[in-house]
Amino acid sequence: MFASLAERLQETFKKLRGKGRLTESDVNEALREVRLALLEADVNFKVVKDFIARIKERAVGQELLASLNPAQHVIKIVHEELTTLMGGSNSRINLAPKPPTVVMMVGLNGAGKTTTSAKLANLMRKQGRRPLMVAADVYRPAAIKQLEVLGGQLNLPVFSMGDQLEPVAIGLAAVESAAGAGRDMVIIDTAGRQEVNEELMAELENMKETIKPHEILLVVDAMTGQAAVSVAETFNSRLGLDGVVLTKLDGDTRGGAALSVRSVTGKPIKFVGVGEKLDALEPFHPERMAERILG
Ligand code: GDP
């Protein structure tokens, strides 16, 4: 992931390090390269503009001239700003004051919602929770079966009522059954669609109002770049997301979505999908990601 972005930024900073003393134009030249690298990585234009402006403000001037190792100083600033851009620190799931915690997984078909629901259940179990997965994706053929198979592989329960009921009715029944079954977390795999449309948004709004989840997580495919960011914007404006899961970060995604989502939507990336296996979901750590990008 981000191979070309990382390579370009590392190259830029290598040049900067080789210079010893830095002039203002050295810094500007380096920032021009950073700007281009980010745009080529498909980072949102406005996000790049604000990002570069913030770094420039900090990196050019007294602070820099006074520092012992100016190149290192600039790199440190970029590292800090990159971390902030991605949300600062790791964000966790909102837990219910009184269990069960209800998590609504939302997203478009193909983003990885069903797989991520199972991966999240697996991760939550490792953290000591007792999750129940709910098969409420009634429109995508085979989604219910898929979740049941994944539940079988994980040896975790899956609540399903076929595909003839409304997702909200299934979700409600699942939440009602959870406490009695000793489950303290309910992860609902909601129905997606091929694309964002009014029917989907109205259905999810209705589910939110009826079920009152503690956490709404949007699953988006990092490979789709800025399209993922615009999906996140729409879902957030209608539903008020709590966080985003970026999937397929193991592929050769350029990084645009990872670097823009937080800034554009104001909502944190909470988890990233890094493979097809059921243990390939990680909490998202902005600082570690910045380190990976900057080398
Ligand atoms: P849904 O339609 O959103 O429920 O999507 P699925 O959960 O069925 O996932 C669609 C495809 O993406 C499946 O082949 C998954 O194995 C794959 N997938 C999901 N997450 C990841 C990921 O993080 N990395 C990779 N490489 N593949 C993923």
Automatic annotation (TrEMBL):
Instruction: Please list the GO terms describing molecular function.
Output: 7S RNA binding; GTP binding; GTPase activity
Which terms under GO biological process does the entry name? Answer: SRP-dependent cotranslational protein targeting to membrane
Query: Which cellular component terms (GO) are annotated to the entry?
Result: signal recognition particle
The protein's UniProt keywords, in alphabetical order, are:
Cytoplasm, GTP-binding, Hydrolase, Nucleotide-binding, Ribonucleoprotein, RNA-binding, Signal recognition particle
| Top enzyme category | hydrolase
| Residue ranges occupied by any SRP54-type proteins GTP-binding domain in the UniProt entry | 268-281
The enzyme's E.C. designation = 3.6.5.4
Q: Where in the cell? A: Cytoplasm
- What quaternary arrangement does the UniProt entry report? Part of the signal recognition particle protein translocation system, which is composed of SRP and FtsY.
Record text about domains:
Composed of three domains: the N-terminal N domain, which is responsible for interactions with the ribosome, the central G domain, which binds GTP, and the C-terminal M domain, which binds the RNA and the signal sequence of the RNC.
Q: What is this protein called?
A: Signal recognition particle protein
Q: Which species is the source of this protein?
A: Pelotomaculum propionicicum
